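Changelog-adjacent note: as of this version, every example in the card shows the full chain rather than a window. The one below runs 122 residues end to end.
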Amino acid sequence: MLKQEQRLKSRRSYVATYNNKNIISTDLIVAYVGKIKTDKNCPTRVGFVVSKKVHKRAVKRNKIKRLMRENIRLMLKNNELVELSNYQSLIFIAKNDILNKTFQEIRNTILILMDKLANKNI
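Full-length structure tokens:
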């Protein structure tokens, strides 16, 4: 599980990140990127969203969020997401195709998103 200071929790934080309108997407996940950090000591906050359009059962939606959250946690632990530390917040939104994907496929998708983020000048 992500540390408390790394979680995006309040509705206000989600809205602020959405309003920044920096979007990167793949076929499985859409990422909304927050503003660039001014204070480098502050950790990047990450949020996860899976809508009812993906699956009507909360159990399935929560499983998808857990898979994405665990991938991010492991990548942060292994310092694989250096690009992530430049931003205040990120929101990962799952698309319909993510339901039948494995842990490794979701990991590869997140790495592709982070490569796109590194190459994009926001």
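Structural remarks: Residues 48 and 65 are 6 Å apart (CA to CA).
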